[in-house]
Write a structure and sequence with these properties.
Length: about 350
């Protein structure tokens, strides 16, 4: 990828096709605009010595920072023909002829020393003692090149991270009524279990005066409460009211199973039986009735639980009995909305 790629991407596809035909690019017919621009960028940069003289490709090579070779003034002067003017003869004068004297024996024994003659081409022009600043076109091309490399690196890092794939999978997993019901039940159950396991002081970390770090108390959940009856009474009351009894009612009073199988006892397909195993509408209605009877009217399951246990469980659930009824209302609305979407 070169700095000329943004220029190619800014053109229309017919212009890119014209460039491909002029430069004999092979197998470009199935390329889209982006792939054709990348292929042309590589093809033109690799063959810059061939296509740089094309006037239609001059803008690309200007972005690339490549200029067509031009003759310097020194070369022009060296290649210029030197015209020798003829010697004018004046009348009445004879040209002087030099009589070459024969060299003496001493002079002939000495080697002849020839002085090198300087030609105009061997004369070097003095170099400038200062650095010539870069042109704005070269600076812009360098900035475009660095920006393209940075953008390509960020795109590759984003693609390799897999964030989009994971986010899509999480969205697909949460976009169901079962996921919503599971989240609501987990919120209620975590609040109940957290209240049943009180934190017990275990030890203190020593203070570090050098970094002004005070003592830190280390607390752990008291698991010994699991041997008490209060723990199991509270956990059983919440589980029966919010999970077990509503599931039993949703399995026996199953309107979705009737709609999916037509009331036949034989399972037709595995998908239909799996979808209609528990009726979410019956589950939420049964849970709302149980929550109201137990935590509002203090119905204690035929004297199995005390009023203290009922009040304790009601106090630790988020929003108390109103929060549980709100969760059932969300489940009912979600069930009806899902049924409308399935029918449409």
């Amino acid at each position: 990828m070169t700095s000329g790629l943004p220029y190619l991407k800014s053109l229309r596809k017919p212009d890119l096709v014209d460039f491909a035909e002029r430069t004999d690019l092979q197998e470009y017919e199935d390329f889209n605009k982006n792939d054709l621009a990348i292929a042309l960028d590589k093809h033109l940069s690799d063959n810059s010595s061939i296509f740089m003289t094309d006037s239609k490709l001059s803008k690309f090579y200007e972005r690339l920072g490549v200029a067509t070779p031009r003759k310097t003034p020194a070369k022009r002067t060296s290649e210029a023909k030197v015209e020798i003017s003829p010697v004018k003869k004046t009348p009445g004068r004879k040209p002087k002829t030099k009589v070459e004297s024969e060299p003496s024996s001493d002079e002939s024994s000495k080697p002849a020393i020839t002085k090198p003659t300087r030609t105009p081409s061997s004369v070097r022009t003095p170099r400038a003692s200062f650095d010539v600043p870069a042109s704005p076109a070269l600076v812009a091309a360098s900035i475009d090149r660095q920006t393209a490399k940075m953008r390509e690196g960020l795109e590759n890092a984003w693609d390799h991270s897999g964030f989009l794939e994971h986010s899509y999978s999480v969205r697909a997993m949460l976009s169901s009524l079962k996921a919503v019901e599971t989240i609501l039940i987990c919120l209620e159950g975590s609040s109940v279990i957290k209240s049943l396991f009180p934190m017990r002081h275990l030890a203190n970390t020593p203070a570090v005066d050098a970094i002004h770090l005070p003592e830190i108390m280390i607390k752990v959940p008291d698991v010994f409460v699991m041997i008490t009856g209060e723990f199991w009474a509270s956990l059983t009351l919440w589980a029966l009211t919010s999970v077990v009894l509503p599931l039993i009612a949703a399995w026996f009073i199953n309107l979705s199973w009737m709609a999916a199988t037509g009331g036949q006892s034989v399972r037709r397909t595995r998908s239909a039986s799996t979808r209609a195993s528990f009726d979410p509408l019956t589950f939420n209605i049964a849970k709302a009735l149980l929550v109201y009877k137990v935590f509002v009217e203090h119905f204690n399951y035929f004297d199995l639980f005390s009023n203290y246990t009922i009040v304790k469980v009601n106090a630790v659930v988020p929003g108390r009995w109103k929060g549980m009824l709100t969760g059932t209302a969300i489940g009912v609305i979600g069930t009806l909305y899902e049924a409308i979407l399935r029918r449409s």
